[in-house]
């Protein structure tokens, strides 16, 4: 017997796929997965998942308001993960980042006015802190209640954060007027298998796999804190179902900062790299440090990190090694070197 009807926007993507897989294990859940597959393709993993009896998959472009007519109006939960993400996208098509992300937010909220969904989740980002951290020298680890800012409105990189700040404000204000429960997670560098090819860990994996030597580390002194996907997914579910979690916004991540240099050397070990390392400049516009303060998430819904960085990296590197071996042609095209963007600064 179905107890919970769950709708997930952006379900073919990295977090959406893992969340759908996790929630579908409970047979009392029925999941409607939505994506236009512009980024998250229907690969073997997703094909297997959407064959499950308690899942339906609908291919929809959420920038088109007519798409929403294909949905019911009664779901118990909605997860809004659909978005254009990735630094490469902001640097090459900032107009599309703004257009697509804004339309998804607005169309979803207008549809929510008429639908009967009481529990809504909106995926936001630690990029919203980047301006404040670099310019106003705010706290690291960073709590949720600091001011948000865009440090350089002209830089295309900030188009993504601009849309996510809009998303937070829009979802909060609509939820107050239209009376639905809302939770917002600011994700901090979530990683794991099937995360695509546009983020720091898959970039490193791909370059070690290709045997780049000497190995150049871009922005070696920058720091990040990486959270393994399984921990993030359990955190999202706990946040959505918690009665104690009364605030709108929670950090989801890992509060152990690591230098990019150390991260690169750890990934190199999984590929038995014994060569030299050299230093390169950081990605244009990227923040120097990033690490979440997780006190509120730990207190309000008992958020936990079970995976150490080494454990998570091991699983992720193994997954990518296998992927690259099986899909040689695809991966030869996928990597874009940070210098590809040197003209955009
Ligand atoms: N992965 C992270 O570390 C991280 C960090 C901060 C924030 N986030 C946020 O979490 C969410 C999920 O991130 P992810 O890493 O899984 O990204 P992803 O790119 O893997 O997934 C996003 C999905 O949205 C879909 N999508 C894009 N435009 C669409 C449209 N018009 N209609 C329907 N679907 C569309 C894409 O096809 C993709 O499958 C995003 O909102 C992102 O901004 C993720």
Rounded mean pLDDT is: 92
Rg, rounded, reads 20 Å
Estimated share of beta-strand residues: 15-25%
Helix content: 40-55%
Q: Give the terminus-to-terminus CA distance.
A: 55 Å
User: Count of DSSP helices?
Assistant: 12
Order of strands, main sheet, comes to 3-2-1-4-5-6-11
CATH class term: Alpha Beta
CATH architecture group name:
3-Layer(aba) Sandwich
Q: Could you describe the largest sheet, including whether it forms a barrel?
A: 7 strands, parallel
| Class by SSE composition | alpha/beta
CATH superfamily: NAD(P)-binding Rossmann-like Domain
Q: CATH topology, anyone? A: Rossmann fold
Q: Give the tally of β-strands.
A: 13
Which consecutive residue ranges, at least 5 long each, have pLDDT under 50? 338-345
Number of domains: 1
Listed once per kind, the bound small molecules are: nicotinamide-adenine-dinucleotide
Order of helices and strands: EHEHEEHHEHHEEHEEEHEEHEHHH
Shape: globular
């Amino acid at each position: 017997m179905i107890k919970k009807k769950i709708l997930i926007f952006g379900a073919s993507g990295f977090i959406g796929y893992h969340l759908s897989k996790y929630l579908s294990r409970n047979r009392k859940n029925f999941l409607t997965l939505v994506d236009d597959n512009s980024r998250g393709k229907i690969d073997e993993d997703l094909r297997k998942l959407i064959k499950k009896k308690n899942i339906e998959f609908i291919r929809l472009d959420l920038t088109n308001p007519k798409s929403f007519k294909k949905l019911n109006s009664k779901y118990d939960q909605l997860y809004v993960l659909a978005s254009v993400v990735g630094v490469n996208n902001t640097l090459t098509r900032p107009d599309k980042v703004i257009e697509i992300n804004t339309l998804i937010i607005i169309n979803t909220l207008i549809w929510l006015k008429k639908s009967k969904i009481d529990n809504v989740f909106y995926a936001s980002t630690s990029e919203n802190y980047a301006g404040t951290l670099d310019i106003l020298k705010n706290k690291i680890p960073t709590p949720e209640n600091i001011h948000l800012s865009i440090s350089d409105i002209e830089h295309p990189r900030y188009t993504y954060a601009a849309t996510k700040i809009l998303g937070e404000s829009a979802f909060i204000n609509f939820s107050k007027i239209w009376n639905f429960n809302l939770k917002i997670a600011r994700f901090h560098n979530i990683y794991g298998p099937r995360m695509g090819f546009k983020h720091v860990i898959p970039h490193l994996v791909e370059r070690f796999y290709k045997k780049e030597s000497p190995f150049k580390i871009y922005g070696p002194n920058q720091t990040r804190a990486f959270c393994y996907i399984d921990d993030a997914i359990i955190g999202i579910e706990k946040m959505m179902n918690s009665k104690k979690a009364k605030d709108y916004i929670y950090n989801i991540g890992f509060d152990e900062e690591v230098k990019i240099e150390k991260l690169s050397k750890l990934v190199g070990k999984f590929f038995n790299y014994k060569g030299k390392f050299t230093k390169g400049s950081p990605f244009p516009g990227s923040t120097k440090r990033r690490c979440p303060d997780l006190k509120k998430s730990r207190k309000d819904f008992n958020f936990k990190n079970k995976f150490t960085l080494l454990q998570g990296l091991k699983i992720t590197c193994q997954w990518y090694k296998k992927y690259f071996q099986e899909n040689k042609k695809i991966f030869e095209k996928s990597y874009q070197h940070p210098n590809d963007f040197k003209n955009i600064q």
